[in-house]
Specification:
The protein is α+β, with helices and mostly antiparallel strands. Helix content is 32%, strand content 19%.
Amino acid sequence: VDNQSSATLHRRTVAEWGRAREEGGNVLPAWAMQCIMENDYPRPVPKRIVFSVAPSRNSGLPPLEKCSFTASGLCKIRKLAQHVETLLAPKTRRRDQSAPGTPLRLQFHCEEERLPESIDIASVAAFVWAKADPMVLEYSQA
């Protein structure tokens, strides 16, 4: 225990932590042990991510007037789809009068991989795009 404060300090080498874990010692929570033993630290989520949005080649959908976006890395594809659907609604209604009132449903792709609606933009940038260039997301009708 540090004499200057009430905080408990745990000073050990990685080998000592490993022995403590093998002996079944629960000195630290499991998530802390995972960080120490496997060098698996949570990576910070970027605050803002710049990306562009364009229609897929054969989608037949019009491009957006403003195709460059900046969003929180925690923003989900579902939220982006809702926003783009709102922006495209006036354009698609004028072009397709056969089904008035039918809501436009979009799906997004990155590097020709369909993105689930539940994935966040930071994960797409890190695991699907994985390039230094600005990310490009393509949309098509679901």
